[in-house]
Every structure is written in structure tokens, then in C-alpha cells.
TrEMBL record:
SUPFAM superfamilies: Heme iron utilization protein-like. NCBIfam families: HutX. This is Heme utilization cystosolic carrier protein HutX. It comes from Litoribrevibacter albus. It comes from the Bacteria.
């Protein structure tokens, strides 16, 4: 299931309230990973500007997000859930995964919110 890219800001604003997540950024054959609160953002000069207290910051050109996909699959023997932000060529720009606790278990409140979003956008 895919969500139109024009919903990206709405989703990012929601995710900023989830607590610890894992963000994966893919670029030029490199994979960058950030674990922590996804930062809140604001729109200025054509970008959604992230300003995190944890050091994770950036500037997202939300117009480049064509669609967001729900990823629900096994990874290394464990269930994982992510929102995958894709461009018009269906290339992954970045992913935001439901967080895990110190024992490696998924955070149930985030799993619940992820599934609520799936139901909302499926309707």
C-alpha cells in the first residue's frame, strides 16, 4: 500500500511524537542509521527543516517524495515495520522504523500507531 507524497509532512509530524525510532538514509551506495527521536520540523525556504536536540538535523525537499510505503516484514528473524519514503523513480530516500526497547522488542505503542496509520490510509 502506498500513500501519496503530499502526506509526507503530516506523517513526519506524527512520527516526531513517537519516541525512539530508527531512521535509515540511503545515498550513493551508503547507508546511514540514526536511532533516537525523529526530530520535529518546520517549513521554510521550500524545505521541511528538521531541528533535533540529539544532533540529527536536516532539510527535506518534500516535493521529491512521490509516495510513502508501509513496510511490514521479517528482518534478521524479527518482525519490523517501517514507513519508506520514495521518489518518483521508486527509489528509497529514507525509512523510519518502529523503535525497539533495550531487549530488542518492538515498542508496542509505535506498532499500534503504525497499524492505525495503515488502516487509516487503506480506507
Amino acid at each position: 500500500m502506498k500513500i501519496p507524497g503530499n502526506k509526507a509532512q503530516e506523517l513526519l509530524e506524527d512520527i516526531a511524537n513517537w519516541g525512539n525510532t530508527t531512521t535509515i538514509i540511503l545515498h550513493g551506495g551508503c547507508v546511514f542509521e540514526f536511532k533516537g527521536h525523529f526530530p520535529k520540523g518546520s517549513v521554510a525556504q521550500g524545505f521541511y527543516n528538521l531541528k533535533g536536540e540529539s544532533g540529527f538535523e536536516g532539510h527535506l525537499n518534500l516535493e521529491k517524495v512521490d509516495h510513502i510505503a508501509f513496510q511490514d516484514k521479517q528482518h534478521r528473524g524479527q518482525q519490523s515495520y517501517a514507513l519508506v519514503f520514495n521518489d518518483k523513480d521508486n527509489d528509497c530516500m529514507f525509512k523510519i522504523f518502529v523503535g525497539r526497547n533495550t531487549e530488542g522488542q518492538l515498542l508496542e505503542n509505535q506498532v499500534t500507531r503504525f497499524k492505525e496509520l495503515q488502516r487509516t490510509y487503506r480506507a
